[in-house]
Amino acid sequence: MNDRILFSLILLSIGCCFAAVRTTKNEEIQKFTIQMIGYSPQKTDDYVAVSVEATPGYVVGFEPMAHADRVHHMLLYGCTMPASDQGFWRGMETCGWGGGSYILYAWARNAPNLVLPKDVAFSVGHEQDGIKYFVLQVHYAQPFAGEVHDFSGVTMHISQRKPMNLAAVMLFVSGTPIPPQLPAFQNNITCMFPSSTPIHPFAFRTHTHAMGRLVSAFFKHDGHWTKIGKRNPQWPQLFEAIPTKLTIGKGDQMSASCRFNSMDKNRTVNMGAMGVDEMCNFYMMFHYDAKMENPYPQGAICSQDHPNLMKDYPADGFELLPTRPELEHHAHQSKVPFGIVQEAIHEKLGGIKLGQVAGLAFNNEKQLLVFHRAERVWDANTFDNYNILLDKTPIKDPVILVVSFNGNQTRLDKKLGAGKFHLPHGIYVDKDDFVYTTDVGSHTVSKWKIEGEELKNIWTSGESMLPGPDQKHYCKPTGITRIGDQLYVTDGYCNSRVVVLDLNGKFIQQFGLPGEDAGQFNLPHDIVSDAQGRILVTDRENGRVQHMTTQGHVIEEFKSTMFNNIYSAASHEDYVFMVPGRPMMGHESEGIAVFVGRSGAGLIEYAFGPATRGKREQMGPQFGQPHCLRVSPDGDHIFVGDIAEGKARLWQFKVQREENMSSMTSSISLGWPSLTQTDAKYNSFFVLLAIAILVLGAYCVRRRCRNLENGGALFDKRGFKPLRTEETVGFISDGSESD
């Protein structure tokens, strides 16, 4: 990956933390996210880290934002000092010398959210806890395929109320090499508990690489062994709750064991951080009375091997657990590098030269419907100042192309719609194979049925060529989707609303007003539904996607300082794909990327774009003005329609992953409670911090964190306000200079 791209992404996403504040019945909870900076791994087993000053408080929960296809593991540390003052660095270092190093959270293999028990929390950002910085270490097993940039991270839920009990994590780790050709080999670790402050283990996590079959831990008090926990490390590597209350006191023996199978190895395998090595880790999360001394003031780690003390280790600690195929599938780490690879750029389909590609939709036969404008172009001469179309003749050529794809090979199956449209915009196909379209030129919404080679009109809603704001008119409607027995139309360039129709085109209700608050719009440009029957509205000039109920209540929004406009969005499983139509001002040379977030997080998780995006010396074709985006029903392909004048194209991307490996989400039930979804009332602001600190210096770091403590925004978004056009004196179009 080109370092210039990395640096540009950092500058766009400066301050590597996102924070959100809400007030609940009992306490104020702050959401604070530390993320990677749009990194693309350079090599196999690539370790990188980011740091940010800790905000004072008490961490009560963790939300991971990563996937095993991209990330091998993440470790979140609390440090007195980070290993580097640069904000971002390559290598395995985390905390600096001369201070404390505390593990706060660990994630791997698609582990879900973690919520701490009531009255238990990690103290951070206070003088007495020694945690002045958060450091997120991310391990990438292999480089990505294609032009992909990663923003994986962890969101902490931070309370300002001091709990009765403070939490900490103890790491048991072994360095014993594993001999080859053994069906079962044990690595053992033992330490004596030295403190007079009793500790109470309440959760545990296991971690090995591919050879691990079981990791367990017990403690011995007065000659009696008590299980702390045991788990198959090939399952999601979550912190599993301990069902009973445990107490470890001074002088008690704490021991852990890892069982490995090395039958497929012909050499000794060492313990280490690389993929060819192995690991033997048991993470014990415990709490202690907040009024007592910290039992491990410099961090808790156990790495000693005392064979004589393990002679009577319980047999249960060596016995394998029953197989759980569903957990192993959920935790699967792909051996194929994750990537989204540019597969084709189509300027013609079946010999037909594409006009501006305004809309895309898949039918039930998995064919792609391409809604283009043929020879017609939307420019400054298309409408008058009252949104009336000047050229009222319909487009004479077919504007709906029904296409089948096999890799980068295409077959044009049907060409439809000649003489029926004036300025195509949005298209959708429902489960009954009805086709719905929006026409911004005629200000209408229509329902169609494909009968052979003909496109038969079922009904048209709105008065042709007459824009308006009432129940019988639209003004440049943009998108349409169906949920249940209702249709949802974004209306659009003038009215800033969502109109709800029945399946016969009759008005039911509307919601939305002009503005930038939650539930308001500044040019709703596209609309799709998610797997749960909710809607995603692309709020173009507010630079966001609003995730809403069908009644118009906002669940979350996807917004970032990395873009200030969003033209189109698509949903597949729990991922949301978003594409801007214009680059950020001042960053035109970096091009445009597709951003991908996860439902329930409201944050960007990774981004991708055309091959060699942003590399001047190898510059290939780049997005011109992306207008629409859709994901194939199987999730294997992503298509982007481009309306750039003179460069209308259909971009085709292939999602690279192992055969038959569908996207795996964190919604599987794993026996640990989930954090609640982001509340729509959060007041959100970004804090991303990374290489830019090289320029800004440590002073800027301190200043940002002081601002956070005072409740201020750490990144001034005033420079990224959406461009506005006064509709009384001009217009907003797909391709106008005003955009």
Helix content, binned percent = under 10%
How large a portion of the residues is in β-strands, by DSSP E?
35-45%
Per CATH, the class of the largest domain reads Mainly Beta
CATH architecture of the largest domain: 6 Propeller
Shape: elongated
CATH superfamily of the largest domain: TolB, C-terminal domain
Summing up helix and strand content along with how strands pair, one would put the structural category as mainly beta
Number of domains: 3
Question: Mean pLDDT across all residues, rounded?
Answer: 86
User: What is the strand tally?
Assistant: 48
Structure overview:
This protein has 3 domains: 135 residues, Sandwich (Jelly Rolls); 165 residues, Jelly Rolls, CATH 2.60.120; 311 residues, TolB, C-terminal domain (Neuraminidase), CATH 2.120.10. A hairpin with a 2-residue loop joins β31 and β32. The strands form 9 sheets. Strands 1, 2, 4, 8, 9, 12, 13, 15, 18, 20, 21 and 48 form a 12-stranded mixed β-sheet that branches. The longest helix has 17 residues. The chain is 4% helix and 41% strand. The N terminus and C terminus are likely disordered. The protein has 3 helices and 48 strands. It holds the Pfam family Cu2_monooxygen.
